[in-house]
Automatic annotation (TrEMBL):
It holds the Pfam family MMR_HSR1. Belongs to the TRAFAC class TrmE-Era-EngA-EngB-Septin-like GTPase superfamily. EngB GTPase family. Necessary for normal cell division and for the maintenance of normal septation. GO terms for biological process: division septum assembly. Residues 32-209 form the EngB-type G domain. This is Probable GTP-binding protein EngB. The gene is engB. The keyword rRNA-binding does not apply. GO terms for molecular function: GTP binding; metal ion binding.
């Protein structure tokens, strides 16, 4: 495990480059290498977590305004490329205009269900809020599509360790009832770096599977 953490750390410390922004599936790069996607409700911390993983602050654009990420943003990891990271728009952002929400949902669902090289989806959940109905909807869709995913709690720095432990146990119990979900969940903080080395190792392992 220590070896995996170090291998993953080195890989993420090397070249990571923004490749392109795809507003529709047709703009995605050729499916010639593994992809790992960051999914989750708007503002859950997808872009921040991608930045924390790669140790690069402004790589993916993060902001307190929900709906910051509007397209599938693709990042190449390694030179030569080893895999790609995909920062997705958020789902369940009720305040956005209806047609925009519908367009994002279609883009997210079409990508998650149909991308052949998608090796794992990281389903991000705010540690303060736990699983919401819209998260369960995405998880059930991934189960049906037989797409492997792992639940990752974000913003762990915002709650007490005792509360975090309770939420982890609750979410893990539910994850175990979903067939395509990885049985273990991870708690992370893009702010303090907690759980980041472990998530790097999990991503590298999934990309190579
Ligand atoms: N305290 C704390 N704040 C965080 C953490 N991760 C993200 N945030 C904050 O949460 C807000 C949203 O973060 P983003 O990374 O933009 O979230 P997102 O999921 O990409 O949002 P959309 O692209 O709009 O769907 C920003 O203000 C971040 O600074 C974390 O681990 N700890
Ligand atoms: Mg974002």
């Amino acid at each position: 495990m220590a070896w995996d953490l170090e291998t993953a750390r080195r890989l993420f410390a090397g070249p990571v480059e923004f490749r392109l922004s795809a507003p529709e599936l047709e703009f995605l790069p050729a499916p010639d290498v593994s992809e790992i996607a960051f999914a989750g409700r708007s503002n859950v911390g997808k872009s921040s977590l991608l930045n924390a993983l790669t140790g690069r602050q402004g790589l993916a654009r993060a902001s307190n305004t929900p709906g910051r990420t509007q397209e599938l943003n693709i990042f190449d990891v390694g030179e030569p490329r080893v895999f790609r990271l995909v920062d997705m728009p958020g789902y369940g952002y009720a305040e956005a205009p209806k047609d925009l929400v519908a367009r994002w949902k279609r883009l997210i669902f079409d990508y998650l269900r149909g991308r052949v090289v998608l090796k794992r989806v990281l389903v991000l959940i705010d540690a303060r809020h736990g699983l919401k109905p819209v998260d369960r909807e995405i998880m059930t869709m991934l189960d049906k599509a037989a797409v492997s995913y792992q639940v990752v709690l974000t913003k762990a720095d915002k709650i007490k360790p005792s509360e975090l432990a309770t939420t982890m146990a609750k979410v893990e119990a539910i994850a175990r009832t979903h067939v395509a979900a990885y049985p273990e969940i991870l708690a992370t903080s893009a702010e303090t770096g907690a759980g980041i080395p472990e998530l790097r190792a999990a991503v590298v392992l999934a990309a190579k599977s």
